[in-house]
């Protein structure tokens, strides 16, 4: 878990966050309801956006990221708890949450299938699964470039893979797609699923 990645994450992301990402995050998070779990909450960039939810339980494995999120957690308008955990092993009972959210996280989780099985388990049947991710592009030329760049990118960005086909993996787990929006020729996607 990189301390440097945590240090540079917000300044590097800021230009995108102030423009298109902010709108995508708002669109995604206003769909959340009830008890919410956020996976890989990072520096807590989503924390100020939670409004009409009961509470948020955020999990994040990188302690340096958690440290940087605490200020936003304190200022949030809903109760937020942050735990140092990984998505592949969630310390919660079955059907604990109404909504599960992850933003720019499934590109980095080492075992995506295991994490999705945990999401299915801890989310209530019929609950919402809300994702904002960068994914493998459908254009084969651009997709190949993403795959070529991934070994280098992953080293700089703490394990982040540019060529994860997250849409297919989530569908294969049996979640029902409610909505899919694509941005920048399908490089970024916003997805709402219903838990089965
Ligand atoms: C690119 S950052 C995104 C942070 C934040 N969600 C955002 O939207 O800006 C990816 C985050 O996923 C976290 N992460 C990595 N492996 C994880 C895992 N196995 N389970 C949960 N989160 C993980 C990283 O520590 C990092 O904070």
Automatic annotation (TrEMBL):
GO molecular function: S-adenosylmethionine-dependent methyltransferase activity
Coiled-coil annotated spans: none
GO biological process, one term: methylation
Keywords on record: Methyltransferase, Transferase, Ubiquinone
Residue intervals of the Methyltransferase type domain: 38-130
InterPro entries reported in the protein's UniProt record: Methyltransf_11, SAM-dependent_MTases_sf, Thiol_S-MT
Name assigned to this protein: Ubiquinone/menaquinone biosynthesis C-methylase UbiE
């Amino acid at each position: 878990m990189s301390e440097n990645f945590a240090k540079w994450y917000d300044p590097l992301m800021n230009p995108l966050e102030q423009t298109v990402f902010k709108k995508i995050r708002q669109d995604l998070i206003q769909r959340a309801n009830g008890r919410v779990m956020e996976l890989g909450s990072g520096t807590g960039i989503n924390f100020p956006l939670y409004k009409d939810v009961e509470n948020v339980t955020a999990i994040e494995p990188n302690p340096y990221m958690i440290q940087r999120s605490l200020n936003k957690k304190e200022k949030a308008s809903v109760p937020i708890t942050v735990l140092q955990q990984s998505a592949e092993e969630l310390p919660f009972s079955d059907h604990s949450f109404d909504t599960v959210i992850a933003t720019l996280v499934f590109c980095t989780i080492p075992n995506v299938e295991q994490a999705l099985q945990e999401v299915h388990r801890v989310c209530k049947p019929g609950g919402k699964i809300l994702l904002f991710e960068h994914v493998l592009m459908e254009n084969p030329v651009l997709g190949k470039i993403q795959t070529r760049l991934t070994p280098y990118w992953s080293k700089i960005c703490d394990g982040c893979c540019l060529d994860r086909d997250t849409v297919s993996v989530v569908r294969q787990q049996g979640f029902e797609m409610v909505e899919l929006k694509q941005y920048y020729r399908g490089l970024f996607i916003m997805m709402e699923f219903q838990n089965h």
